[in-house]
Design a protein that fits this description.
With 388 residues, the protein is an alpha+beta fold. The protein has 3 domains: 87 residues, Acyl-CoA dehydrogenase/oxidase, N-terminal domain (Butyryl-Coa Dehydrogenase, subunit A, domain 1), CATH 1.10.540.10; 112 residues, Butyryl-CoA Dehydrogenase, subunit A, domain 2 (Beta Barrel); 147 residues, Butyryl-CoA Dehydrogenase, subunit A, domain 3, CATH 1.20.140. The protein contains 11 helices and 10 strands.
Amino acid sequence: MIDFSPTDEQLLVRETVRAFVDRELRPHDDEVEKLGHVPPELADAIRRKAIDAGLYAMNMPVELGGGGLDYVTQVYAEEELAKAGAGLGVLVNRPAPILLACAGDQVEEYLLPTIRGDRSECFALTEPGAGSDARAIQTRAVRDGDDWVVNGTKQFISHVDHADFIILIAVTGTDETPRGPRSRITALLVDKDAPGVDVSPIGCVSTRGYNPHVLTFSDVRVPDKNVLGTEGHGFDFANEWLYSGRVMLAAMCVGRASLILELAGDWAATRSAFGRPIGEFQGTGFKLADMATEIRAAELMTLHAAWKLDAGTLTAEDASMVNLFASEMVGRVADHGVQIFGGMGLSTEFPMERLWRDARVERIWEGTSEIHRHVVARGVLKARGRLR
């Protein structure tokens, strides 16, 4: 039997992260909401404090200078980090695991500085014409001597404003397969200040401070030594990272939903109507019960998925199930939270409206709900030999 009761070490991690979030992140939520970005000096201060607290790069191996947390323990940490605005929580960087594919000079130039907090990355896959259909990307890298020349556009790339290099997914050729021509997908490490890289923001109603951008590459020269992993095998690394990313997204959804329940519960216990706390009315109390139940279910699913990640047995279907359920759960919980608050739920005087807005994107950015349902359905049919 699997026991997900947190160990003493996991409780310590959770309490340490919770205290850091309450002390160093959440007090800045209102400022970031109003500004629409995290000021560079604030970002630097948070990054340094996270390093001093031993929370930076908690997902990276100890032998490389990281925290070495297993995935189950990371879930507890992610739940707490999610209680601050996305633009603040991301500054306690958990570097993209795809960087563990760094080799040779890349280790000293990109991997280790990122773990130390001297550098920061962003991940560029999505394009104007390629969101869910990732293999339809058009950004191309053409070999020219010892360099690759990159041209194309990436869209909805987050954290670009605080990153100094880009993990770029691009097409580097075409392979002939039994199903016809197939693009060769390669991961490249590109310095953001390289000539020909242009960055422009995209206005967005949610996750202010963790803002999406358009990246345009115009004849950007990238040295061959900056190919991450093997040319033509970019998705081999990216998919492994995307699966763990989907589990961690679920953990963040659980954390954010827990905060919403806390706020809604306090409001329902103290707000009165018709001479009684509104929580005593079934219309409100049943909402609280549904919220608590769904959060518990999502957390158990997330911990089980993290346990399978640690065991090396997580499947694509597992990752999609937990992402799908948790991301839709936080949307329902946020909607209930606004309803319980009534008109004040949409007032900027309270964080409920921000949590409601931020919850909406969870059903999109780590794979849409439709894609996750497709992945799960394929698994069901494949197990019955009914998949063509």
